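Quick bug: Ammonium transporter output formatted oddly.
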Amino acid sequence: MNAAALPTQLAAPAEIDTGDTAFLLVATALVLLMTPGLALFYGGMVRAKSVLNMIMMSFSAIAVVTVVWFAFGYSFAFGDDLGGGLLGDLGQVFLHDVKPDSVTGTVPTLVFAAFQLTFAIITVALISGAIADRAKFRGWLVFCAAWVALVYVPLAHWVWGPDGWIREQLGALDFAGGLVVEINSGAAGLAVALVVGPRLGFRRDPMRPHNLPLVMLGAGLLWFGWFGFNAGSALGANGIAAQSLVNTQAAACSALLGWLLVEKKRDGHATTFGAASGAVSGLVAITPSCGVVDMPGALAIGLVAGVLCSYAVGWKHKFGYDDSLDVVGVHFVGGVVGTVLIGVFAWDGVTGGPRGLMHGGGLELLGKQVVAVVVAAVFSFVATYAIATVVERTVGFRASADDEQAGLDLAVHAETAYDLGSVGAASHLSKPGSPKPLQVRVEADDE
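Here's what came back:
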């Protein structure tokens, strides 16, 4: 996915390199793990009555996006350009012409296609956080299929595909997904939140995370998987992958510290939730730039993202849109920070590519990055708003008030996350021949 190396790799394929292949296989598994990690991260952030529904939205995205991607999504995104850098052809539908020995760069095309699939999956799953606690499950499934086909695939071609116009004609850089994943999901999250509407009691009732250990576990899995996300985008075990890995770690840590400093000054407390959110904001921001900036640039990008995102998560209360789990505040704002600051910190000593403002490159690259951000955000928002509106008016997107109040876990899935099985245990023990349950009597204190 390396914006600097990918065109050369696609145009002049080499023989399969076993080291690069093994590296990308591991990276693919790491990125796929990020979606279950996101499910736990989001699951801990919602109220207890909808945690399973939140987790199911991520897991169902894995299934729906995989089918769409292998059917035609990969071909449209990475097939030969049809003209104008807008969309690929149908030469690789169902991967029917992709053989085990087909090569993209130095890795099998099958591995490359699977690696790209994991990016599409988590981008869709990220959007679910904006409509937590209130979306119809069937509406979500329909939305997933339509969105990945009509929004993600075209944007991926523009930025990473052969002759994609944002990379080739505009000359903007996106190493691992600032435009395609972060800004795309953030703008889409805002659009679906506006279409679906706010949760019942928004800005009135407390809607705090119900399980912070689950949030921290999910954040840890995301952090772990992000090394595959960013370093894997070098498409090989090489120096750019190493640079991406250390930049990823640096930005996550500087963002975490920046968020906590703001939180301590503003609220008087440095919280575990703030630590998790701060780390994720830094990981988001370094995603587009990890392979094109040096260490000082990575630290600066992370710090700026941690500070700005910590303030941006409050926008929903100021402007009245209910982005339940801060997809806009973290992923959109963090993605914008990381993508724009490529124009400031890009260093040709990393990739040999264009230089940013801080390294004597002038304003040219910065201007290109700003244009790319605006194009990606507007396209994603408008297209997503249209898709979500169609879904709402056909199969329905907003859950009923009764289901929302009762909790989507029971209403939709007939399950609860924290049923300790007391009823089931009593039923089992009441069967003939079962041992009698231990009788425990608790007496009130006499006062």
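Actually, after a second look the formatting is fine. The chain has 19 helices and two strands. Closing.
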